[in-house]
Design a protein that fits this description.
seven-stranded mixed beta sheet, transmembrane helix, alpha/beta, membrane, binds 2-acetamido-2-deoxy-beta-D-glucopyranose, Rossmann fold, six-stranded parallel beta sheet, SAM-dependent_MTases_sf, elongated, about 500 residues
């Protein structure tokens, strides 16, 4: 009997201990889960227990948001597991990495990261779903700078962002120096060099490591772009010296030269009927937006130099006919003639610069042609000829025919108004001043900021047809105009002959 009783109490002892241990474990888990749901943000603390969480599809998440998730959530997780395994094998991701997944509605990437052993990972989305997804968005990460070793963006997130430049800058901020960012984006991003370079320019914190084409979650072709953070903040390629006397040869990348090669040919011989030929040439024009994808630009800007009335080119042509790939452009109208200013006050979304585009800041005289044969009616009353700008050097006897206006340094203004990350279209019709403005734009490097230029070059054209009288108004010849266009194209500027 003795040995049996001893055996019983021994067993009871063990059972009691086991039971207490189980209770203890349960209590600890409960405490931790409560803490987690109570809002702690450091995912690393509870990763050990994450499998006990209800990791089904987040409540806000439905098929309507993304047809490839929802009920296919698990398949999606498996997809990202494969993606991250490759990155680990490659060395850009490691189990020690502190990782962030940006704009993830379902958190599949975050779960996949944890499943491949990167336990310290978290996602952000506008609707939070702890513990995987905290509240935030691509343009605002709820973290301080230099926090993550690895960041990931699923396909579509950057494309859908209304402000891709901010999206990229925010990655540049929260990524650590030496950290990696992998961006999944539609294969279209790399289809043309202009688009791919625009993309890389957005991420100017980072250096391109490699790209690879893979299938997306839905098997559509996507591209994975891997980059490494090399520097803090931005370094614009163009810098002007304080006195504005910058000399700046800008670098013309090969893809810009390629676009110019594919553009419509310049008209080599002087047209016999210029007003017919140049107008007909409009049909041949290869717009930049019909050749490349402009999605990854920061801002979209149209500058009309010599805008005249609103209807003459902004309203009739740019707003109605220029192909914009559905982007909203900021419009700048540069027009010195007061007769046109009133009209712009009522035009929404047009910024009027009531000055003359010139090569430096100075007062100019604006010639008003009084010759009755060249009279032009202008909306608002007055009779005006096509204005021409002359620097201050006229004798006072002509002052009655001149309007005093303020000229400004157009090249300097352009450098302050836009950056190379913006998409900039310029139309220039400045009555001969192009022979001053274009060399200044080239010499200052500001020319590289212009993506597409529509230039009307003014020369002493035939008034009717060949061998008849030539316009006395302009002194340049057609061949000088052709030189101007050729030199612009040699600088990688897609310039079109405008009428
Ligand atoms: C867990 O997920 C299921 C859906 O699969 C849901 O019905 C349930 O309410 C969830 N439980 C908790 C505690 O969130
Ligand atoms: C440009 O590319 C993006 C993706 O890279 C795509 O979403 C967009 O539809 C494309 N736009 C055009 C006009 O092709
Ligand atoms: C153009 O943009 C508008 C809203 O900005 C949108 O409703 C429309 O679907 C877009 N069209 C295309 C072809 O992308
Ligand atoms: C020219 O004028 C603009 C606007 O008033 C000013 O911002 C700029 O500094 C001036 N440039 C020079 C070189 O004086």
């Amino acid at each position: 009997m003795e040995p049996t009783a001893a055996k019983h109490s021994f067993l009871r002892n063990i059972l009691v201990r086991l039971f207490s241990f189980a209770v203890l474990v349960f209590a600890i888990r409960f405490a931790i889960i409560v803490t987690v749901h109570g809002g702690t943000r450091d995912s690393a603390d509870f990763c050990f227990f994450f499998e006990s969480h209800n990791l089904s599809v987040p409540a806000h998440f439905s098929d309507a948001v993304d047809p490839f998730s929802g009920k296919n959530w698990r398949r999606s997780v498996e997809y990202y597991v494969a993606v991250f395994r490759d990155l680990i094998a490659e060395g850009s991701l490691s189990p020690d990495s502190h990782a962030l997944c940006i704009d993830t509605p379902g958190g599949e990437e975050v779960l996949a990261l944890r499943e491949v052993g990167v336990v310290d990972s978290v996602g952000i989305f506008k609707k939070p779903s702890p513990p995987l997804i905290l509240q935030g968005n691509g343009c605002r990460h709820p973290f301080s700078g230099d926090t993550f070793d690895f960041e990931f963006t699923r396909s579509g997130a950057l494309e859908r962002s209304p402000r891709p430049a901010e999206f990229a800058a925010e990655i540049g901020r929260t990524l650590r120096l030496g950290g990696f960012v992998a961006v999944h984006t539609a294969a279209e991003t790399a289809r043309d060099a202009f688009s791919f370079n625009s993309f890389l320019e957005l991420f100017n914190c980072c250096e391109l490591i490699r790209t690879r084409e893979i299938n997306g979650v839905d098997s559509s072709p996507i591209i994975e772009i891997l980059m490494k953070k090399k520097r803090h903040g931005f370094s614009e390629t163009l810098a002007s010296s304080p006195n504005g006397n910058f000399v700046n040869k800008c670098f013309v990348p090969w893809h810009k030269r390629e676009i110019v090669i594919n553009a419509e040919a310049l008209i080599k011989d002087e047209p016999l009927k210029p007003w017919v030929i140049l107008k007909r040439n409009i049909k041949n024009i290869k717009y930049l937006t019909s050749l490349v994808n402009i999605s990854f630009k920061n801002r979209y800007v149209y500058v009309d130099v010599g805008a005249r009335s609103y209807g003459s080119s902004i309203g009739s042509w740019f707003r109605k006919q220029y192909p914009k790939q559905n982007k909203t452009f900021e419009v700048y109208a540069i027009e010195a003639d007061k007769a046109f200013h009133e009209e712009y006050r009522t035009k929404k979304g047009v910024n009027l610069l009531p000055y003359a585009a010139w090569v430096r800041n100075e007062t100019l005289f604006f010639e008003i042609t009084r010759d009755p044969s060249k009279k032009m009616m202008v909306k608002g009353g007055g009779v005006r000829g096509m204005g021409r700008i002359n620097p201050v050097q006229t004798s006072s006897s002509h002052m009655g025919d001149m309007d005093k206006i303020q000229g400004f340094d157009f090249a300097e203004w352009l450098k302050s108004a836009v950056t190379s990350r913006d998409f900039v279209v310029v139309k220039m019709d400045v009555e001969g001043t192009e022979f001053h403005l274009i060399p200044r734009l080239i010499q200052s490097g500001a020319i590289c900021l212009i993506d597409e230029l529509f230039l009307e070059c003014h020369y002493n054209r035939w008034q009717r047809c060949c061998a008849g009288p030539r316009s006395a108004k302009y002194h340049k010849t057609y061949s000088e105009c052709l030189d101007l266009f050729t030199s612009l194209r040699n600088h990688g500027v897609l310039v079109h002959q405008w009428w």
